[in-house]
Specification:
Ferritin, 5 helices, about 140 residues
């Protein structure tokens, strides 16, 4: 569970850094900067918690699948530029955040037995939901 949560943030940081490098749209850049800032913060909290709990996050089928899918999308985006890049990046962010939102609500939070972990996942859920709304706003501006 800890590795999935950490991987989620790490992958979105990577995608956001790619957007910061490739996009010229100020709204997309602002969104991407928000992703980096927020997920760096959440991942710092997650790492501090696993250290405190003396838990070793383990790579698993879900985190490996997420990483493979992200690598495919990163490669696809590396061939795009301008408005085309922006649209694909932001549309992917909407989908990604919906998937993460669903996983947090239906799987990770209900399965969390540790109160601190559950609290961290609930904070992450609010962050993800905010990102999803922001991505939808950016997508509407791109049309």
């Amino acid at each position: 569970m800890a590795h999935i949560a950490y991987t989620t943030g790490k992958l979105d940081i990577t995608a956001a850094k790619q957007a910061l490098e490739r996009s010229e749209n100020p709204n997309v850049k602002k969104f991407a900067a928000e992703m980096v800032r927020d997920y760096v913060g959440v991942n710092k909290r997650a790492l501090a918690l696993v250290k405190k709990l003396r838990v070793t996050p383990k790579d698993n089928d879900t985190s490996r699948m997420m990483s493979r899918n992200a690598a495919v999308k990163t490669k696809e985006l590396s061939h795009l530029k301008g408005a085309e890049f922006d649209k694909v990046y932001v549309d992917n962010e909407i989908i990604y955040h919906r998937i993460v939102d669903d996983a947090l609500e239906t799987d990770l939070i209900p399965l969390a037995r540790n109160a601190e972990l559950k609290d961290l996942l609930e904070v992450a859920l609010k962050t993800v939901q905010g990102h999803e709304k922001h991505a939808e706003q950016v997508a509407a501006q791109l049309k």
